[in-house]
Amino acid sequence: MELASSPPPATPPALPSPAPLGNWLKRRTPGDWLYAFALIAGGIATFLRYGDLMDGYDRAILAIHVPILAVIGCYWRPFRVFLALVTLLALAGVGLYQDDLARAEQVFFLKYLLSSQTAISWMSALFFIATGAYWLGLATRSTFAEHTGSTLTWAAAVMGTTGLFVRWYESYLLGPEIGHIPISNLYEVFVLFSLITALLYLFYEGRYATRKLGAFVLLIISAAVLFLLWYAFTREAYQIQPLIPALQSYWMKVHVPANFIGYGAFALAAMVGIAHLLVARGILTSRLPAPVVLEDVMYKAIAIGFAFFTIATILGALWAAEAWGTYWQWDPKETWALIVWLNYAAWLHMRLTRGLRGAILAWWAVVGLFVTTFAFIGVNMFLSGLHSYGSL
Amino acid sequence: MPRNTLVDLLSSMRFAISLLTVLAIASIIGTVARQNEPLNAYLNQFGQFWFPVFDKLTLYSVYNAGWFIAILAFLVLSTTLCLIRQAAPMLREMRGFREHAREESLRLFHHQASLAPTLPVEARRAVVETYLAANGFQFKSDERENALLIAAKQGGAGRIGYFFAHGAIVLICLGGLMDGNLPLRMQMFFSGKAPTNGNQLIADIPESARLDVNNWSYRANVYIPEGRSSSFGVVGVGDGILLQPLPFSIALKRFHVDHYENGMPRRFASDVVITDSESGERFEHSIEVNKPLEYRGVTLYQASFDDGGSILHLSALGLAPGAQSVLDFSGEVGSGVQLGIGGQDYRLELTGLRPLNVENTGSSAAAGGTEDGTGGTDGTGGRTGGRSFSDFTGSGARAPDSKTLTNVGPSYSFKLRDSAGQALEFNNYMLPIQLEGRWYLFSGVRASQAEPFRYLRIPLDDASGDIWFALRRVMLDPVRHAALARRFAEHNVNAATDSTLRERIQEAAEHTLTLFASGGFDALGRFIEAAVPETERDNTGTAFIKILQGLAWESWMMAREDAGQPLFEASEEHARFVRDSLTAINDSMTYGAPVYLRLSAFEQRQASVLQAARSPGKTPVYLGALLLVIGVFTMLYVRERRLFVLLNNDEALLALSSNRKTLDIDETFARHREALAAALGAGNNPSRSGLNETPD
Ligand code: HEM
Question: For chain A: N or C, fewer Cβ within 10 A?
């Protein structure tokens, strides 16, 4: 029987999932394990240090962060470096403060690097330079410039995230009852927006192995940063303000980040959409990725944005139910969230419909950004409602 | 199903897309026009002509409007049809392996490749099946004559997501309908409930305006002053109300407002005692923002708060010339007091008390303009001074440099209605407020809600605020003009040298007084316009002002004499007080009220406004929300992949299909092809291989 002499079935080569868990675990490198271990250790350390100051909710959040970050890190290796740097810098900042706010002005590294204002200013500067680098790269077809661009974007993300963490700590130095997560006013969420958009972009940059889109995505980030600076220094918005009662809710801590993953992804999709439209008109065609690629990035971005925006809107409803006694009352902010959501639901359906692809989708994504922007700041500027605490 | 039937249209993807877009656009309308406000507010806003038009279009409550509900209904209908129509085929898809796929059709796949034959079919089958199993495929084999098809699939669960997400839409819409105002409208329609007007005693409210205790869906406001209790909620309908009895009574022991030290509110809480009207069961609880209380299927939320009838102890200082009257009395916020002043009848309506007002007294913005007591606390005070490097560094915790938020103490508001029914609205601060290093009493007045308050700034000297009233009386009282003018002349012209000059000065002074008393600076201005030639006017003007200031000074001193207080030496400090006094007197002529109301003491009583809600739709909506999230994620992230491996003696044909068109399919296919080729030890089969351009 020939069968006898048939070679033993070759063990399948390493493949990313989807695949059974055991198989998946088999493919983890020592690096993966080290990273996972560091996360668990960090989680335990935090728990031992602050556990008794936390309530059940805080503990749960701490616990689920370990697996979440672990998975992200396994699918997106550069993220580990990012996380490590942020952890180091943030801890350094906290350490240098020694529970004394005044040291922000006295200690060199706080004043010029790690205090929240400084770190966020660094973030802003780095984003601007990165934008320039990406455009230089696009103009001169210089991979070096593009490379610099993405390095700077990473750096900016690190500084911004550090800034937020340090700011979080600073808020507690103002007084235990004042301390709160720094995503509660327009200034803070603009930082958050820039960070999330940047990270999403960097993820796709790696996934699609092209740095060409940085020039476009970084534009919207720079715009956000410009607004941030204007807003911060005309309205002194950078000051940490205590939370009004309506904002003192568990929901906020999940609702806001989820929301901004949505906003960030939609913004990214829109900028890719612009690139798509240019290419369709034969502009920069030779310098930008092919339309199919652009459309794919758009889809991926809108898909993740839509998914998280769904969560965010629902969390918002649960929160509203607690704070105002109604999970939905057609308050302008709520309604505009719904409008944004419907808009992208429609987008996703269009993509599934033959004949409604290509340029239409790109246009729709670009228009979507205006809708999103209005839901984000327009509502606070022009329409009055219960969300007035974010008001300009 | 035959094409272009109605069902077909309704469940078509394009219809879905248009529906979603229409719904989005329709929703915008309601965010532009404020919803569910009192009708006369809209009348003011839109005017006689447009008001009824917009009313017809139900723009004042878009989201309850028939046409809006209709759009939602279509969404539900369409989604439902969609679900029903997709159900059968999708379930088939999920279960089936398509193991009967014909070779020809496989060759037409966008992703297909052919590998050269290496081992006998059976051997290759073993290899392929291990590979598929190891990579999370389920598969089914179909033996054909001299060929074998292994049909494998992955991520079929993605389809469940479709049912979850779209079922959720239906669930949520229906749940929302239950909690909307549809139930209320049905009760009004079927059991003939009709709203009545709000301002009457609960006892007087007719049966027709009382909803059932067991009403299964409502949202009502419960107003409870401290120390009182209530077992009724009020449901606003248009401009009228309906009464919603509760299955329990709520007694408010105390209402707390805690503040951060910068004056921002930190916590609103009501300490209540709930008493069940049937079982008589009693228990205490504290309801806070974000911490509602659920009892007997009713959820109680901290909605807002109000004055519960605080007692104000007031004294009215007459402003009429000559009037020295000081009238002391007390009143309750929310009630009215009849006042007879100078033969006139006035009705005083006490409208509010704010024990705490945090103002931004640092930036000039707040000077004079202390809008509604919340100014400054919103942390958006305009910044003075330029940027500096230090703005970009340091912690986010630095104190604002342009803002000094301070609590300027209690304020009280009231309306004064004359016999003709004309009302002026006032907002006074109980304590003096310091501005640019000097102390003033602030009293704001306005004729209508629309305007901002104009503030009368009454200066204080070292003695008290009363001194200005005395000074004012001296200056405006004709009886004292002669004496005042003489005193002025005496102090300004040396009697010995020139008596005629003094005469003239005295006349001028008396004349100035009469003018000023008759109409303030304007009167003087008009006189100058009339009597003095162009070229002279400036000088005359300054002369008049000098005289006025001199007179004010004298009246001040006279007032202090009357009050038995020591006199002052002239100084810049005092000159400033004189100027402020003159301005205040001038402004007081257009103050509009014959008295200034001073708050001497108060006993605050607050009221808490709770929202009592029964929302039967909550469960379906929350369930729907959960399904929606699960559904959306599975639909978007569980990718269906079908891998076909056709083995026969002269090749191994691979074909891959997916229900979504994304780039990574190419890569996935390439991966499987390489891996299988390796596993089978087979090279490509150039004769037949390659990507088809035909779309799948
Ligand atoms: C608010 C309403 C709706 C939402 C949020 C929604 C959401 C979604 C999402 C997220 C997808 C997946 C898109 C993708 O995988 O790229 C989808 C697919 C789909 N939707 Fe909807 N949808 C809604 C209404 C409708 C309606 C009214 C219809 C039918 C008339 C419909 C029919 C479909 C169909 C047929 C698919 C493709 C399912 C598949 O091939 O797996 N949807 N929907």
Answer: N
Q: Is residue B404 in a domain?
A: yes
Residues of chain B falling short of pLDDT 70: 1-4, 38, 322-324, 360-392, 398-405, 463-465, 495-497, 683-696
CB contact residues (below 8 A), chain A span 230-259, against chain B: 233-246, 248-249
A339/B621 touch (CB, cutoff 8 Å), yes or no: no
Q: Are residue A323 and residue A210 in the same domain, yes or no? A: no
pLDDT number for residue A39: 95
* Residue B319 sits in the same domain as residue B458: yes
Q: Do B681 and A245 touch (CB under 8 A)?
A: no
Phi and psi angles of residue A30, each rounded to the nearest 5 degrees, phi first: -50, -40
Q: What percent of chain A has a predicted confidence (pLDDT) above 70?
A: 91
CA–CA–CA angle A333, A339, A343 (5° rounding): 150
Please state, as a whole number, how many other Cβ atoms lie within 10 Å of the Cβ of residue B239: 11
Distance in Å, CA A355 to ligand 1 centroid: 17
Q: Which of B35, B632, B639 sits opposite A310 (nearest CB)?
A: B632
- CA–centroid distance, A344 to ligand 1, in Å, is 11
Distance B165 CA to ligand 1 centre (A): 8
Tokens of A134: 């990406």
Which of B79, B93, B174, B641 has the most ligand 1 atoms within 8 A of CB, as the residue to mutate? Answer: B79
What's the structural domain count of chain A?
Answer: 3
Using CA atoms of A348, A350, A353, A359 in order, give the dihedral in degrees to the nearest 10: -120
For tokens 């330079």, name the residue: A129
Give the residue from A248, A280, A311 where a domain finishes.
A248
CA dist A356 and B14 (Å) reads 9
A313 inside domain? yes
| CB pair distance less than 8 Å for A23 and B135 | yes
**Residue in chain A nearest B263 by alpha carbon:** A242
- Binary contact (B126, A112; C-beta < 8 A): no
**Are B332 and B443 in the same domain?**
yes
Chain A, residues 85-124, CB within 8 A of chain B, namely: 101, 104-105, 110-112, 115-118, 121
Overall average pLDDT of the A55-63 stretch: 90
Q: What is the DSSP string of A19-66?
A: S-HHHHHHT--HHHHHHHHHHHHHHHHHHHHHGGG--HHHHHHHHHHH
Q: Could you give the CA distance from residue B545 to residue B525 in angstroms, rounded to a whole number?
A: 11
CA B392 → CA A120, A123, A185, A233, B370, distances in Å? 8, 11, 18, 9, 31
Phi, psi of A254 (to 5 degrees): -105, -40
Reading the block at residue B303, the tokens are 């909605």
Residue B456: both structure tokens together: 């009368």
The residue behind tokens 């004079």 is B368
Nearest CA to CA, how far is A291 from chain B (Å)? Answer: 11
Per-residue pLDDT of A317-343, as tens digits, reads 998 888 878 899 888 889 999 999 999
- Find the domain containing B544 and state its range: 472-588
How many domains is chain B partitioned into structurally? 5
Any idea how long chain A is?
A: 392
Q: How many CA atoms lie within 13 A of A323 on its CB side?
A: 20
In which element (H, E) is residue A196 found?
helix A186-207
B436 inside domain? yes
Q: Which residues in chain A touch residue B613, judged by CB atoms under 8 angstroms apart?
A: 325-326
Task: Give the domain-ending residue among B426, B445, B463.
Answer: B463
What's the domain range around A41?
31-75
Left if phi > 0, otherwise alpha if psi is -120 to 50, otherwise beta: which for B136?
left
Residue-averaged pLDDT of chain B: 83
Residue B70 domain flag: yes
Pick the atom of ligand 1 nearest to A299's CA: 16
Q: Please report where in the chains the tokens 């022009």 appear, as a residue.
A: A382
Q: Please check whether residues B373 and B478 belong to one and the same domain.
A: no
